[in-house]
Amino acid sequence: MVRSLIALLLLAAAPAAAQPMRAIYEVYAAGMTVLQVEAEIEVTPAGYRMATALRTRGMVATFVPGEQATRVTGAWAGNRAMPSDYRSEGVWRGTARRTVLGWTGTDPSRVELLPADSDEHEPVPREQQTGTMDSLSALAFLSRAVQTSGRCEGEAAVFDGRRRSTYSARTIGQERIAPWRGAWHGEALRCGFEGRMIAGFRRDQPRERAATPQLGTVWIAVPYAGAPPIPVRVEMVNRWIGTATAVLLRAEPITTPATPVSARAQ
User: Fold this and answer.
1) I want to staple 49 with a disulfide (CB 3.0 to 4.6 A). Which of 42, 130, 216, 243 is the partner?
2) Mapping DSSP to helix (H, G, I), strand (E, B) and coil, where does residue 5 land?
């Protein structure tokens, strides 16, 4: 669930319309770099395209090698994000993993999983899949609320093919981020968030522990003149590694056609 939360929050404030942009983040835990994340965002009045690529770094990569590329395309129905195609591919601990979701309205009409999910997770009942969206589309949905209101309040029901979760966010207020490890610093909007799994629990983990809400904080700001507001820092508590901190290293407009972030991660 920690990877889903990080992917969701590292793009939490895309605008209604803007030039495509790229953002690079690093994630730290226990004083070490554990993940690197690259994100690309393109949002127009008609729809959106988002992609993330993440890989483990440092000592974590030695013991838990992994990389994952995720992308989604979708359209808008008012302020609601309506995904049409979601794909996530990667390798974790030497095992290839792939999720493909197709959507009809707000219902997943196509679900392809590698490996098959019957042995790893409890099945998510069909009625709990209805009215959901993928994690990146949930980000787009919540982000439009931030863009239009300047506040973080919002909630989204998320289905990633294996798990059903609920994400919510609330406004805390403005705060100044101090310089830290060469990351972005300055004034930012501070928001609290919560992620709660409600179905699709792993069969080999205690259900009560997995259902415990994961809490954290995200700071959102404009990283450069003319850019949309995006997360510049994220802190979250994970039950396995303690507090993880993601920081924005740099953000830039995409001015020329680029290789999709999902392709570069392979």
Assistant:
1) 42
2) helix
What are φ and ψ of residue 141, in 5° steps? -60, -50
Q: Residue 231: which of 152, 161, 163, 178 has the closest Cα?
A: 152
Side-chain half-sphere of 59: how many Cα atoms within 13 Å? Answer: 6
List pLDDT tens digits, range 75-123.
988 878 899 999 999 998 889 999 999 998 888 989 999 888 667 889 9
Question: Half-sphere exposure of residue 244, counting CA atoms within 13 Å on the CB side?
Answer: 23
Evaluate whether 140 touches 50 at the Cβ level (below 8 Å).
yes
* Cα 138 to Cα 195: distance, rounded to the nearest angstrom: 12
Among 170, 145, 143, 141, CA closest to 158? 141
Percent of the chain with pLDDT over 90: 45
CB 196 within 8 A of CB 208: no
Residue 72's contacts (CB-CB under 8 Å, 6 or more residues apart) are 48, 49, 50, 51, 83, 85, 86, 87, 134, 136, 137
CA distances for 44 relative to 17, 78, 80, 150, 259, angstroms: 5, 13, 14, 19, 20
pTM of the model: 0.83
The predicted-structure confidence for 152-167, as pLDDT tens digits, reads as follows 888 889 999 999 999 9
Does an H or E element contain 140, and which? helix 135-149
- Per-residue pLDDT at 8: 52
Beta bridge partners of 108: 103
